[in-house]
Amino acid sequence: MIKKIIVILTLFISVASFAQKNNASAYSFFGIGDKNTSNTVEQISMGGIGVSLTDQFRLNLSNPASLSGLKFTTYALAIENKNIWAKDNQGKEQGAATYLSYLAMGIPLGENAGMTFGLLPNTSVGYSLVANSFNASNELTEISAYNGEGGTNKVFLGVGFQIFKGFSVGLQGNYIFGKIENNITNQLKDVALATKYETFSRIKGFAINSGFQYKTKLTENVNLHLGANFDLESEVDTEDEEYIYSLSIASGEIPRDTLLTNKGNGILKSPLKTSLGIGFGKENKWFAGIDYSFQDALQLQGNIYNNFTKIAYDSYSKISIGGFYTPKFTSITSYWERVTYRAGLKMEKTGLMVNSSGTGNDFTAIDDFGISFGVGLPVSNQLSNLNIGFELGKRGKINNGLIQENYINFRLSFSLNDKWFKKREIL
Question: Could you say which residues form the signal peptide (predicted)?
Fold first, then answer.
């Protein structure tokens, strides 16, 4: 039954989600889009922690070393609904997007090893903005429309195994691919034709991350969890095209004269990213932990990216704090005692720097703060769960002509467990 459910949901959600925009943020305009978190709904509901956490029933996408503790074949898929309220000195706008957040499967390999593979969005682009210019008499003189869509996806394969009691290591390979389209249409007052600048980027590359976890008892009921994950230095290649041409908007955006055609290649260099985690907990009862991640500035190189004078990249860092509590994991008398309750918060320095004027060196850091909470609802009498998560936060600021985004994200995931390779019993 579980296999039938996963196939039906996977086909339905995949077709519906990948056909739509998966972002609604103005900040997805920059670079190759917003970087999506590589965490499950359960982890995001705890502020994004997970580097040190291992679970025999659920996948952990933050550290492949956690796969050594997986005891059940686990299917995981999730959908996410983003709601953004953006404001600047001129007014407010609202946007929303719903998409497939991840699709993954984990398989135990014996008692002390496991593997996982799956697909998740890596970066996302999705925005539609209009900027108006007025003269001293408050008459409209110019309109500029900004639109973008696309992003990159990540296919991954990871393994983890226990070296000795309490200590595990893991390795994961990632193939990144996708396509991004951006365009700007500019129309001046009393000018018959508008001008459109359009770019296309096809992106592909490989990346590797590795990690370790260590778990030991502090007391009879409390365990200490330590972990680290390393996203190794990588390069993603881009094949870029850019065009400038005139067009008649009144005639349905019919192109006229092509003013520029250019093709080239670009590179996104991602330095080593280190994530460290520590936590304390009781097996299947409670857990509290903190993760800290840091990375040097990203580097964009290429004809198209060299034109982005309004952005720069600084070092990245993130602190996540959170945990979960399950009243009684084995309760047979009360359903709600088997429910898992989660909460957490994050403080993130995204590394993106924006200069709204495009001149000088007046860059402003775009930071992100969010709080999250959620529940894990047991499905029937099985070990499977329906996970619901909410996240509220704020990114950016109104200062220096920028945009502040307040957001509410809703997430829903299925973590379905099955036991494969059962030994046949002879009665």
Answer: 1-19
Residues 6+ apart with CB under 8 A from 126: 21, 22, 23, 24, 25, 28, 97, 148, 149, 151
Torsion of CA 378, 379, 383, 388, to 10 degrees: -50
pTM of this prediction exceeds 0.85: yes
Domain boundaries 2-345+397-418, CATH class: mainly beta
Residue 305 predicted with pLDDT over 70: no
Q: How far is the C-alpha of 263 from the C-alpha of 380, rounded, in Å?
A: 56
The answer to whether 269 and 235 have CB atoms below 8 angstroms apart is yes
What is the band of 254 on the pLDDT scale with cuts at 50, 70, 90? confident
Residues 283, 44: Cα–Cα separation, whole Å: 20
Task: Please answer whether residues 156 and 111 qualify as being in contact, where contact means their C-beta atoms are separated by less than 8 angstroms.
Answer: no
User: Are the beta carbons of 45 and 323 closer than 8 angstroms?
Assistant: no
Q: Where are the domains of the chain?
A: 2-345+397-418
